[in-house]
């Protein structure tokens, strides 16, 4: 029988500690080449349906780079993805290449965990400058937009007709007659007809677009929050809030499961829906007549086009993977014109961010005014760096300040004053 | 006759040698658990306690800021809402859950085929809480089975149980009671079986009916178990997280289901404010200690221990 000595007990305890230590260290950055091949771990968020759009770009990359093993680590939910990513970054176990949301990218950059994109073979001049600002820090660019999604107003011609509306919003916009007054006249008629006027998502692009389409400012050129001092911003927000409170306008986030924004749109119960290009999938998936739907930009007081928010996601390379050539190869291919073509053509869910690929949006002929999405991309702006530099600040503003305003229907000045105070407090250091 | 001399301690030397060896075996068997406790409980607790006095976003070095995080959290309306919601969950689920479990245990104790019913009651206990939350989410959505049935039966408009702050909180309570019932029933049944049949027979002979026997004999004799279960269930309720996270999509409408642990998670992992998050977790610890102390104080009055 083996006698258990003090030394053996010590050895056992040591082995146990080593085992636990090794276990704790596992799951780290997997970029270390195995079997002589390079390995690239990359991650993003999305539902199983959304993740399918990455199949072709991954297959194409593998075909061109047979010596690179590509490991895909998706997470279903956007918020869970970022919680996980931040934990991985702080513990040095992040993937080599990863998506970052536009409300998070600036804060991630400031933690010095990303490699500058100057190591990639891409030219930043090929990307829309207005959506690069948020990914720049002290003159260096740390991420590039995968693609973008300006929230166009998707409208249902049948719903408009049912509400007695005879004018076509896209035609009005083409003649610079698409005014806020005209828009509210239509949403009012839709509400009177028992339909929902318009639906928006409760996030930064909605509030900011309301204010900038109304002729106001949100942040000034120095990055200071100025919406509360801009009479046009306050007035625009008050106008929309009053209509949210009556139910003429609604927040998609608060619609009940099963009768959400998509259902309302495809069952002709909704006039306008502020959403990105992914709405094509919703309409086609429902099997409804495509010709009944079109898009228009946000209305403005004078009917002319104004800049509005452009949602974007960014691709970045971990600082720890900076020496991994394969990571940069994948990064460059993924964002290249070819990579974006593979991801976004057909029923793609976004608008390309790189020059020379606009045909992806126009080729299909649906919606009829698809050019509007490209115009909105070129005129619009990304999330403001000041706001995106504080984790979850955009979400906090949306949930704790804007949503109560929309429910109350008035008090834009007080709300914006409180937001200004919050932004100042959060960005003081 | 001279008695045989005894060694010190009254044991032969060989026997003492075995005891020495047993000690090391004991240490070896306890070591993994002790190591786990140290790594996954004591060290994180110490780290959280220290982080509560710092500002840290997960990167770089934490910055010491004294009691600022506690001042922030103790005046935070969000933490106030989280404490209120958590207390509602605890105060609704613990008494109702324990009462239903006792009633179910008394009934099951008297019927045939109790094993079958026990399996049914116990199934949620061994089911993943995420799976439970997802199934109930399907039942409770506005276009779910429950709303659909109510609409068909009574012609009322579909109810969005999870879209209203109050209904969503009630939904969390309902699912919590349902999910924890099985474990409580099993424990109470074990307690019931330890009650001597002669006591019940004596009570019956003295003319005590079923209700009198339940309140005058069964409940007092079960009171130590009820007390233990109430302490455990209350602490468990204070830690409610996974159910609200999955069932009601994070904090629910208007923070209607924001619980303390969700608040801690939100601050730490969504907002990267680990100092504030740690301070909130210390507040939860304090709250748990106070409530448990109150429960222990109350037991002197309500718990009956057989001498």
Which key features would you list for this structure?
heterodimer; A: 429 residues; alpha/beta; D-Maltodextrin-Binding Protein, domain 2; six-stranded mixed beta sheet; five-stranded mixed beta sheet; 13 strands; disordered N terminus; B: mainly alpha; MetI-like fold; two-stranded antiparallel ribbon; globular; Sugar ABC transporter substrate-binding protein (chain A)
Please outline the helices and strands:
The complex is a heterodimer of chains A (429) and B (307).
Chain A: H1 6-25, E1 38-43, H2 48-51, H3 55-64, E2 68-72, H4 78-90, E3 97-101, H5 105-109, E4 136-137, E5 140-141, E6 144-150, E7 152-156, H6 157-162, H7 169-174, H8 180-192, E8 196-200, H9 204-213, H10 231-246, E9 249-251, H11 261-266, E10 270-275, H12 279-286, E11 293-296, E12 310-317, H13 325-335, H14 337-344, E13 351-352, H15 359-362, H16 371-379, H17 385-388, H18 393-408, H19 412-426
Parallel strand pairs in A: 1-2, 1-3, 8-9, 8-10
Antiparallel strand pairs in A: 3-12, 4-5, 6-12, 6-13, 7-10, 7-11
Chain B: H1 13-51, E1 54-55, E2 63-64, H2 68-74, H3 77-108, H4 114-122, H5 129-140, H6 145-154, H7 165-193, H8 197-205, H9 210-238, H10 242-247, H11 260-270, H12 274-302
Antiparallel strand pairs in B: 1-2
Helix pairs in contact in B: 1-12, 2-12, 3-7, 3-9, 3-11, 4-7, 7-9, 9-12, 11-12
InterPro entries (chain A): Bact_solute-bd_prot1, SBP
Protein name (chain A): Sugar ABC transporter substrate-binding protein
Organism (chain A): Tessaracoccus lapidicaptus
Structural features, described:
Chain A: It comes from Tessaracoccus lapidicaptus. Chain A: This is Sugar ABC transporter substrate-binding protein. The complex is a heterodimer of chains A (429) and B (307). With 429 residues, chain A is α/β, with parallel strands linked by helices. Chain A folds into two domains: 180 residues, Periplasmic binding protein-like II (D-Maltodextrin-Binding Protein, domain 2, 3-Layer(aba) Sandwich); 194 residues, Periplasmic binding protein-like II (D-Maltodextrin-Binding Protein, domain 2, 3-Layer(aba) Sandwich), CATH 3.40.190.10. Chain A contains 19 helices and 13 strands. Chain A has a six-stranded mixed beta sheet. In chain A, strands 9-8-10-7-11 form a five-stranded mixed beta sheet. Chain B is an all-alpha fold and 307 residues long. Chain B has a single domain, classed as MetI-like (MetI-like fold, Orthogonal Bundle), CATH 1.10.3720. Chain B contains twelve helices and two strands; from the N terminus they run αββααααααααααα. A two-stranded antiparallel ribbon of chain B has the order 1-2. In chain B, strand 1 and strand 2 form a beta hairpin. The longest helix of chain B has 39 residues. Chain B is globular, with a radius of gyration of 26 Å. At the A-B interface, helix 1 and helix 4 of A face helix 1 of B.
């Amino acid at each position: 029988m083996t006698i258990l000595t003090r030394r053996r007990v010590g050895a056992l305890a040591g082995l146990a500690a080593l085992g636990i230590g090794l276990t704790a260290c596992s799951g780290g950055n997997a970029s270390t080449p195995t079997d002589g091949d390079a390995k690239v771990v990359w991650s993003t968020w999305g539902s199983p349906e959304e993740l399918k759009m990455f199949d072709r770009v991954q297959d194409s990359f593998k075909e061109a780079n047979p010596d690179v093993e590509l490991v895909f680590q998706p997470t279903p939910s956007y918020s869970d993805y970022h919680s996980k990513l931040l934990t991985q970054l702080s513990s040095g176990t992040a993937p080599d290449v990863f998506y970052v949301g536009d409300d998070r990218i600036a804060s991630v950059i400031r933690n010095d965990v990303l490699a500058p994109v100057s190591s990639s073979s891409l030219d930043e001049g090929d990307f829309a400058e207005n959506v690069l600002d948020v990914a720049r820090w002290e003159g260096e660019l740390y991420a590039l937009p995968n693609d973008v999604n300006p929230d166009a107003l998707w409208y249902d011609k049948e719903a408009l007709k049912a509400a007695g509306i005879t004018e076509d919003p896209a035609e009005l916009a083409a003649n610079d007659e698409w005014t806020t007054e005209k828009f509210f006249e239509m949403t009012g008629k839709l509400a009177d007809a028992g339909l929902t006027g318009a639906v928006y998502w409760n996030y930064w692009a909605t509030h900011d677009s309301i204010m900038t389409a109304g002729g106001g400012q949100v942040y000034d050129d120095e990055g200071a929050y100025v919406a509360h001092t801009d009479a046009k911003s306050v007035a625009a927000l008050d106008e929309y809030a009053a209509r949210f409170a009556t139910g003429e306008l609604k927040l998609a986030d608060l619609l009940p499961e099963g009768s959400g924004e998509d259902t309302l749109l495809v069952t002709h119960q909704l006039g306008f829906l502020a959403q990105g290009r992914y709405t094509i999938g919703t309409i086609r998936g429902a099997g409804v007549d495509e010709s009944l739907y079109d898009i228009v930009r946000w209305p403005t007081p004078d009917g002319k086009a104004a800049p509005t928010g452009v949602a974007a996601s960014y691709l970045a390379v971990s600082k720890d993977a900076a020496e991994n050539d394969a990571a940069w190869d994948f990064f460059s291919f993924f964002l290249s014109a070819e990579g974006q073509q593979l991801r976004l053509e057909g029923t793609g869910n976004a608008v390309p961010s790189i020059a020379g690929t606009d045909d992806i949006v126009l080729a299909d002929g649906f919606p009829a005014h698809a050019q509007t999405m490209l115009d909105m991309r070129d005129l619009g702006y990304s999330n403001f760096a000041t706001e995106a530099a504080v984790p979850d600040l955009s979400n906090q503003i949306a949930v704790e300040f804007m949503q109560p305003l929309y429910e109350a229907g008035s008090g834009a000045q007080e709300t914006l004053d409180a937001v200004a105070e919050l932004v100042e407090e959060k960005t003081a250091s | 006759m001279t008695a045989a001399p005894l060694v010190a301690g009254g044991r032969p030397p060989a026997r003492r040698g075995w005891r020495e060896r047993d000690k090391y075996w004991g240490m070896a068997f306890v070591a993994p658990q002790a190591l786990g406790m140290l790594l996954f409980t004591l060290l994180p607790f110490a780290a959280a306690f220290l982080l509560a006095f710092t500002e840290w976003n997960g990167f770089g070095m934490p910055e010491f800021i004294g009691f600022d995080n506690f001042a922030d959290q103790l005046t935070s309306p969000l933490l106030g809402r989280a404490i209120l919601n958590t207390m509602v969950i605890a105060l609704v689920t613990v008494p109702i859950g324990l009462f239903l479990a006792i009633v179910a245990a008394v009934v099951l104790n008297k019927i045939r085929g109790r094993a079958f019913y026990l399996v049914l009651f116990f199934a949620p206990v061994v089911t993943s809480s995420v799976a439970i939350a997802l199934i109930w989410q399907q039942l409770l959505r506005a276009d779910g089975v429950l709303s659909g049935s109510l609409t068909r039966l009574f012609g009322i408009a579909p109810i969005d149980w999870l879209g209203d702050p109050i209904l969503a909180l009630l939904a969390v309570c309902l699912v919590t009671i349902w999910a924890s019932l099985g474990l409580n029933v099993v424990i109470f049944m074990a307690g019931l079986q330890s009650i001597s049949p002669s006591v019940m027979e004596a009570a019956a002979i003295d003319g005590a009916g079923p209700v009198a026997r339940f309140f005058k004999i069964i409940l007092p004799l079960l009171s130590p178990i009820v007390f233990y279960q109430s302490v455990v269930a209350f602490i468990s309720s204070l830690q409610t997280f996974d159910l609200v996270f999955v069932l009601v999509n994070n904090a629910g409408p208007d923070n209607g289901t924001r619980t303390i642990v969700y608040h801690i998670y939100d601050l730490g992992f969504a907002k990267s404010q680990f100092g504030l998050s740690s301070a909130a977790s210390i507040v939860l610890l304090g709250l748990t200690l106070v409530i448990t102390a109150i429960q222990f104080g109350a037991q002197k009055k309500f718990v009956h221990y057989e001498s």
